[in-house]
Design brief:
The complex is a heterodimer. By secondary structure, chain A is an all-alpha fold. Helices cover about 75% and strands about 0% of the residues of chain A. Chain A has 15 helices and two strands. In chain A, helix 5 packs across helix 8 and helix 12 runs antiparallel to helix 15. The longest helix of chain A is centred in the middle third of the chain and has 39 residues. Chain A is globular and about 85 Å long. By secondary structure, chain B is α+β, with helices and mostly antiparallel strands. In chain B, about 30% of the residues lie in helices and about 20% in strands. Chain B is built from 17 helices and 27 strands. A five-stranded mixed β-sheet of chain B has the order 22-21-23-17-24. Chain B has a four-stranded mixed β-sheet with strand order 2-14-12-11. Chain B has a four-stranded antiparallel β-sheet with strand order 5-6-10-9, with helices on one face. Chain B is globular. At the A-B interface, helix 2, helix 3, helix 7 and helix 14 of A face strand 14, helix 6 and helix 13 of B.
């Protein structure tokens, strides 16, 4: 196990370096840089822009900029955000936490509902309920999450206009609350997080439930399951102790992607629902070419992705006795 | 007895000279007697705020603009004249270069300190020294600096290098900074130290402002809460003598997505909203007519102070054929005759816009010269003109060619974020194809487009890498609406067609000289005459082929009262933050 771990960690280094080099090159390849938008402001003189260019290090070659960024990143200095004029970590950390709220709630929802629906679909395949759920799943897979979010927004507005029922349609907190206590604030944030999380979860539920259903169907048809039933084992033990554990192996392998997803933000749902998460920040940074916000955040998630893969490999070895790393 | 009499007279005189600024009753539809105080106005902002520091704030909306009262003078929308705001009285010298101001004695910052001439003098020094400040450009005129002198505790004078008509407008932009905060920082650390003051994580109670509201709380990316500044009401009253503002505070929610902003207004969570296209306007109207939303809607209040225009690149050294073509006035006139502005307004704006013909925004209708539509939509005339230029043959693909075989084909760029301009481009492509002109489109991000049209180095400016582009302009003052130096000067920062530092064609030189002449012409009738001459040059030479101005629409919750009367409720006087109202006189009925 230990040599395996060591080998994986050593592999991490060239993978990470290559990934960040490519990332840096792509961001630099975009024409212009952060200062291009300033050049349009007639009140900022060309000399001033040149001075800013030196200050931000944008006048150096790509290689020098990359080396500088890398050496800082490795000691925990993620660089400076040009727009906010503050360290990247200060700007990104609160957004990360906000995104985490949405992602955690939606992940819990996703897996609990997906497993239930998937197993149910496998136990009663092609029944009316199964067909209905499958149809809904295909629907959910086909609609992009931000479009779903826009539809939900429209529905909420119509509900508000017709019934006066005030569901939060955006933001993280209510403006009307003045200095609420911790629990009142937590409840308020939870209410605001509910609908974006549900919409996020819907997509996950659609894909995971189909996947689990397929896996379960395959496992339930195996000989050892038939043997277990013949030996008189109870239905619950057969399904959950034997069949599901084997069906869920690929699911465990996919858990590694959860770690970067935790910081990856919740995508466009955050933009539509005005949730102050990571994605709106990244979109702004991309638009203004705020170099270090984009590069450092993506490098962080690259790192977490690689680590997450190692963890899921280890988890797989723990769950599946057939797999042993030498 | 004698002493008492003197004292009484002195007191009476003192009382008589106590003169706060009075917000006139003709700026609100509500009489002061019917007004109720209290309540918080809810607004939404499309972007996040970046700093509390007035010198370096870049975003729109930005916090210093919300919390600063203004400057020495302000405009009375009913008369279009400048009146004293922080200044009680002011006068102009005989050579029209020096203004002398006497400040109101009641002026106070939010922390209780008095606003005095020292604040203004220090502010001017900082603005002149700090190149990062947005107001730095106003402290000099064509390279020559403004000078200023403190004449007393409440008296100061400002002298301009030229007696230009925009000088009072410039003065109205120069808002004071608190001397007791910015002065010491500037003295010890210069421009850098003052720029570093008041970053976004400053405790709001430390901020010192002059405006009707001050920051109470700010959560980044979420919400900005402002409360009433009681010291503002000491020198700002309504016509009944009551202190303003009537509101308890403002609340800005940061909503980045345009659909979400509309949804917030439709759900009744936001009080003031400006729909900017027909679709949003239709949704609000539908909700209002169905009785689901209690709002006031002012559609088509007038054209906005914006314009879109199309231009060709005079600096295309790498393609001599195209450069010669674009510099040929007949070509530009022909292209102007291929722009179907009525179709653009109808299809792109849904009828909610007006055509533009010169650098004077259609909003300033009295300033638009006569007969500016000389080269209006006329494909037959365009084809004839192109034929006269030598494009007589048509290739097998239907594209015009000259005798040497050069095809009449070019690429039109515009920014990918702007749907309106892309649709305009496509309409132009269609019309051009009908007469045999091939136009290819290229929609690129704004920053990339700008780096093509206004590159940094002189070498790049001589050979800019684009053929034609559609961009636009917004803002500018009402004193001399014919334009600003940046657009009319050759090589000016906002000049799209000619970025070479010396004028390439005689009309460009004439245009700029006429503009300089107009800035020193104080007689409005004569200034209009010069503006007409400039506009005739623009019409004849089509350096910028002006396209359209969108109409402005305003919507607000019915509980928001005290808006401008109809006469002044136009985009000319409406605030970009609050719409057609004076925020000091705004009140909430619910």
């Amino acid at each position: 196990m230990l040599p395996f771990l060591l080998r994986r960690l050593l592999q991490l280094i060239p993978t990470f370096l290559l990934g960040t080099v490519v990332l840096f090159m792509i961001v630099q390849a975009a024409p212009g840089d952060f200062l291009t938008q300033l050049s349009q402001n007639p009140k900022i003189s060309a000399d001033r822009i040149d001075a800013l260019r030196v200050m931000y290090g944008l006048d150096q070659s790509g290689l020098v900029q990359y080396w500088r960024w890398l050496t800082h990143f490795l000691v925990g200095n993620l660089g400076l955000s040009f727009s906010a004029n503050r360290p990247v970590w200060e700007v990104v950390a609160p957004r990360l936490i906000n995104s985490l709220v949405l992602v955690v709630i939606s992940t819990v929802l996703t897996y609990s509902l997906a497993i239930t629906i998937g197993v149910f679909g496998a136990l009663r395949p092609y029944s009316l309920a199964d067909r209905l759920l499958s149809g809904l799943a295909y629907f959910g897979l086909g609609i992009p999450s931000f479009f779903f979010a826009l539809l939900a927004l429209y529905a909420l507005v119509v509900v508000k206009q017709n019934t006066g029922w005030d569901l939060p349609i955006g933001g993280k907190t209510s403006g009307a609350l003045d200095d609420p206590g911790f629990f009142r604030n937590a409840w308020d944030v939870l209410l605001h997080a509910l609908i974006p999380s549900v919409i996020l979860a819907l997509r996950g539920i659609s894909s995971e439930s189909r996947f689990i259903r397929g896996q379960m169907l395959e496992v339930l048809g195996q000989d050892y399951v038939r043997t277990a039933r013949a030996k008189g084992l109870g239905s619950r033990a057969v399904i959950y102790k034997h069949a599901f554990r084997n069906a869920a192996l690929p699911l465990v392998a996919g858990l590694g992607a959860l770690l970067p997803a935790l910081i990856g933000g919740a995508g466009f749902v955050e933009v539509v629902f005005n949730w102050p998460g990571l994605t709106p920040l990244l979109l702004d940074a991309l638009g203004t070419q705020d170099l270090y916000v984009v590069v450092s955040t993506t490098a962080l998630s690259t790192l977490l992705y690689i680590i997450g893969n190692v963890i899921s490999d280890l988890a797989l070895a723990a769950v599946d006795p057939r797999i042993r790393y030498s | 007895m004698h002493k008492a009499a003197v004292l009484i007279v002195a007191l009476a005189l003192g009382g008589a000279t106590a003169s706060p600024f009075v917000n006139p009753a003709n700026q609100s539809v509500s009489a002061p007697a019917s007004v109720r105080t209290g309540g918080t106005l809810r607004l939404s902002a499309a972007g996040d705020f970046d700093t509390f520091n007035p010198l370096v704030a870049q975003t729109r909306p930005n916090i210093p603009e919300l919390t600063d009262a203004g400057g020495l003078v302000s405009v009375d929308p009913n008369t279009s004249e400048y009146v004293g705001y922080m200044a009680e009285t002011f006068s102009l010298s005989a050579d029209k270069r020096t203004y002398t101001f006497t400040l109101r004695p009641e002026l106070k910052w939010s922390d209780g300190q008095a606003i005095t001439a020292d604040d203004f003098i220090t502010s001017f020094r900082i603005y002149a020294a700090d190149e990062d400040s947005g107001l730095n450009g106003y402290m000099s005129d064509n390279g020559k600096p403004l000078t200023y002198k403190k004449l007393g505790a409440l008296k100061l004078s400002i002298t301009f290098p030229r007696g230009a008509v925009q000088n009072l407008e410039t003065i109205s932009y120069l808002t004071p900074l608190p001397d007791h905060v910015f002065g010491p920082a500037f003295a010890s650390g210069g421009a850098k130290a003052v720029n570093d003051l008041w970053p976004i994580n400053t405790d709001p109670s430390k901020l010192v402002v002059s405006g009707p509201f001050k920051v109470s709380r700010y959560t980044r990316g979420e919400r900005l809460t402002l409360v009433r500044n009681p010291n503002y009401g000491l020198w700002n009253k309504d016509s009944a003598g009551r202190p303003t503002p009537y509101l308890d505070g403002l609340q800005y929610t940061v909503v980045k997505d345009a659909n979400a902003q509309l949804a917030q207004f439709l759900a009744g969570n936001v009080d003031v909203y400006q729909p900017d296209n027909r679709d949003k306007l239709a949704q609000i109207t539908a909700a209002k007519t169905a009785g689901k939303l209690d709002v006031q809607l002012m559609a088509n209040a007038g054209p906005n102070a914006t314009v879109d225009y199309l231009y060709f690149n005079f600096n295309l050294a790498s393609s001599p054929f195209k450069q010669k073509l674009f510099r040929d006035v007949r070509f530009r006139q022909a292209m102007s005759m291929l722009v179907n502005k009525d179709a653009i307004i109808d299809q792109v704006l849904g009828g909610l816009g007006v055509p533009a013909w010169t650098s004077v925004y259609p909003l300033y209708s009295e300033w638009v010269a006569p007969n500016v539509d000389k080269y209006k939509f006329n494909p037959a005339a365009a084809a004839a003109l192109l034929k006269k230029m030598g494009f007589t043959k048509k290739g097998s693909d239907g594209v015009l060619m000259d005798a040497k075989g050069n095809r009449l084909s070019f690429t039109l760029d515009t920014n990918s974020e702007n749907n309106r301009r892309q649709q305009i481009a496509r309409l132009f492509v269609d019309e051009a194809r009908k007469v045999g002109v091939e136009v290819k489109t290229n929609f690129i991000p704004f920053t990339q487009l700008i780096s093509l049209t206004t590159p940094a180095t002189a070498a790049e400016k001589a050979d800019r890498k684009f053929d034609a582009a559609i961009t636009g302009l917004s803002g500018g003052g009402f004193i001399n609406p014919v334009g600003v130096a940046a657009t009319l000067a050759c090589g000016g920062d906002l000049n799209g067609y000619d970025q070479s530092p010396t004028c390439l064609q005689p009309w460009e030189t004439t245009q700029y000289n006429l503009y300089l002449k107009s800035t020193t012409e104080f007689d409005q009738a004569k200034r209009k005459a010069i503006a007409n001459q400039i506009q005739q040059l623009q019409v004849e030479n089509q350096g910028l082929i002006y396209l359209i101005s969108q109409n402005a629409h305003y919507a607000w919750d019915s509980r928001v009262e005290g808006e401008f009367p109809k006469k002044i409720a136009t985009p000319l006087w409406a605030s970009s933050y609050f719409g057609p109202r004076n925020i000091a006189l705004t009140w909430l009925s619910k």
